[in-house]
Amino acid sequence: MARPTPLSGFPEWLPEGRLVEQHVLDVLRRTFELHGFVGIETRAVEPLDQLLRKGETSKEVYVLGRLQAEAGAAPDRAGTLGLHFDLTVPFARYVLENAGHLAFPFRRYQIQKAWRGERPQDGRFREFVQADIDVVGAGTLPYHYEVELPLVMAEALGALRDIGVPPVRVLVNNRKVAEGFYRGIGLTDVDAVLRSIDKLDKIGADAVAGLLVAEAGASDVQARACLELAAISGSDESVIDHVRTLAVDHGAAHELLDEGLEELGALIRAAALRAPGVVVADLKIARGLDYYTGSVYETVLVGHEQLGSICSGGRYDTLASDGANTYPGVGLSIGVSRLVSRLISRGLVTTTRSVPSAVLVAVSNEDDRGRSDAVAAALRSRGIPVEVAPSAAKFGKQIRHADRRGIPFVWFVGEDEQAADQVKDIRSGEQVEADAGTWTPDDSDLWPRVVPA
Amino acid sequence: MARPTPLSGFPEWLPEGRLVEQHVLDVLRRTFELHGFVGIETRAVEPLDQLLRKGETSKEVYVLGRLQAEAGAAPDRAGTLGLHFDLTVPFARYVLENAGHLAFPFRRYQIQKAWRGERPQDGRFREFVQADIDVVGAGTLPYHYEVELPLVMAEALGALRDIGVPPVRVLVNNRKVAEGFYRGIGLTDVDAVLRSIDKLDKIGADAVAGLLVAEAGASDVQARACLELAAISGSDESVIDHVRTLAVDHGAAHELLDEGLEELGALIRAAALRAPGVVVADLKIARGLDYYTGSVYETVLVGHEQLGSICSGGRYDTLASDGANTYPGVGLSIGVSRLVSRLISRGLVTTTRSVPSAVLVAVSNEDDRGRSDAVAAALRSRGIPVEVAPSAAKFGKQIRHADRRGIPFVWFVGEDEQAADQVKDIRSGEQVEADAGTWTPDDSDLWPRVVPA
């Protein structure tokens, strides 16, 4: 074949990049597990009719076909499979399918790829990795999980500060506040209002005002009130008072508004204690998906706000329901590919080497390869990653082999059973006698590390 | 939606099953990294024309379509994407695409899903996880990698004996032996002979003899000679003598045969030293894929031979070539889903609990949830996985919540700042005073463990 070229929207990393991504995934997984979330995976495909329950996403779904299907045959939607475009819809299906075997409230994390056939852009891919946490209850789910989950994500992302990930800001809002306010000022097509407000960052306030009038049935005064609400943000409880004042000014009284403000206030208070300075109430956060019913979340990397949200989610009351039972949930999803691609493309992080090996065991001649293999096995049995030189080339060439990969140590096997082995730190040039049964590298050299660039 | 049902061929595990799979993947990854393999991932899709370079697999490929594609439009093979059906073809493409950025010989592992549209059977899925290791060289690749790689896999699978995975037997052969022998006895359509021999286990010797005559142009005598070769197996070097004798008997002299026997002998000798009793030369191992050019490998679980191979591969000289440069390689692939499904369906393994949490922190009333959260944070900061009770129910109910999940400890926060906390081992009922800043569970209770059933 000719030299292949990359496919737009399907990112692949070189080994160093994959080390970064794997480290990010390891840190996320550890944080999730420390918080008691159990990992699951779901299949990559769902029946197309399930994926299309949300009309808005229909254009983004990749549909699976069979190579031998008759050309021109009418597509059979019921039997057709599509690749999942997120992990929330498959998780809701998994909960319904396995409800009899799960203990509720069920805390799970899920780290998998998802696919969307949309036009690739910076940080927006056709294939991407997501890392989700959700808690679902059977029938009911207490509000305190809406406080807990964004703080778990803040902790997980905070644990990546060490490697050069910028600080994050978690933006929170509550659908009940928005809906209560809209209804309180006399707007009834809440979904239309939310869809318009969701475009604020993209098209600006004046255009959104126009949309509110044209598509949500708002008067100019009502549209301006919605925009005033969306303009409110802050990281302490004054934000709640601010909304209350605005509501009173506009004569907007609604019990949903009160309930939402109480919830939002509780989240702000808890966040101020547990993750000071990270969580900001931002009343313009709407989230496009229409299944959210309480808290909604978005997360930006400070200094990289233009990248968009790297961790979003919210509370959903009716996503998983089989008629007889309903499983309300709350969850957030980290856009791992978006985050990692930014770390790599902006050179924010680097790795101490490109391969796992801490040691290259040299080979003095091919007939003695077995002795080098034995040294490697002895080191590995004590948890030290090792590879053996590919050929019995001159030692200078073997050292260059290690150097090109960033392997810090080269091991020379003694010329006979009596002669001691030696190990050379090829960075300093220091060479010392060593025994494969006891020698250990510094902790900082044992495995490749991901560090700020 | 109605309660959904599973899709045949797309396995999903309950949380306990996923703990088993994740443990298997963690052990494989660690072994691969100790041997200096670096992890990469490739995209799930490849251009269809690349996937169809091997005609045999065409019927198994899932093709991606766009929902809005015109019904009846002629499929465009060049621009069409399909889901990869293994990790070797994508890896070969990755090597060609990134050759300028890789250091050769390049050692990589790759753990990902693959998809095949074939009829599901026991241990044969439409979506499945593979764990591959390969080494590729630029231009050349020394034979010793053909010895090393199956031994790495034997070590990786051996590291799973602790959790109840049966011992494995690695069956090896060498294409050069087979090809040299066939040519030596006057058969020239080597691929046809291999395809026939590959069916031996399925259809038996007599039917294969018929195939050899009908499709590989063999005489009855030649067909019997091929079957005699295929019947040879053994775990020491006598197997080599056995093949030589057979070749002499049939007047089959060929330099490829000699080269192949020398290689196979070296592998048997090294394996006897490094993994005694695990590797068996089995001259009937053919492997269906036509890109193998040297060693070929299959691996069976002892006592579960009917499951088929759980780890296969071989040496390939020309899979990755862009015309100017060729990258010969050798690799093996573990069928993780096949292995894990057997472990689960036969009840060979179990887990000490179904969630990560070692501790459930009880909540005495909702106003005090913050104090329970603080205890949980203190424990987590020392690496102990913890969750907080979902509600301030009666303590008996909170203990049952832990018990249902197998969480061994329940933590009771002191009634006020002066009263000491207490922690209860709910298995023994023992309850002691404890400080969240110092208390630690036994190592065996810290994380859920996967153990023999």
Automatic annotation (TrEMBL), chains A, B:
GO terms for molecular function: histidine-tRNA ligase activity. NCBIfam families: hisS. Its EC number is 6.1.1.21. The lineage of its organism: Bacteria, Bacillati, Actinomycetota, Actinomycetes, Micrococcales. It comes from the Bacteria. Belongs to the class-II aminoacyl-tRNA synthetase family. It catalyses: tRNA(His) + L-histidine + ATP = L-histidyl-tRNA(His) + AMP + diphosphate + H(+). Homodimer. Residues 428-453 are annotated as: Disordered. This is Histidine--tRNA ligase. Transmembrane segments: none annotated. Residues 105-356 form the Aminoacyl-transfer RNA synthetases class-II family profile domain. PANTHER family: HISTIDINE--TRNA LIGASE, HISTIDYL-TRNA SYNTHETASE. Keywords: Aminoacyl-tRNA synthetase, ATP-binding, Cytoplasm, Ligase, Nucleotide-binding, Protein biosynthesis. InterPro entries: aa-tRNA-synth_II, aa-tRNA-synth_II/BPL/LPL, Anticodon-bd, Anticodon-bd_dom_sf, His-tRNA-ligase, HisRS-like_core, HisRS/HisZ.
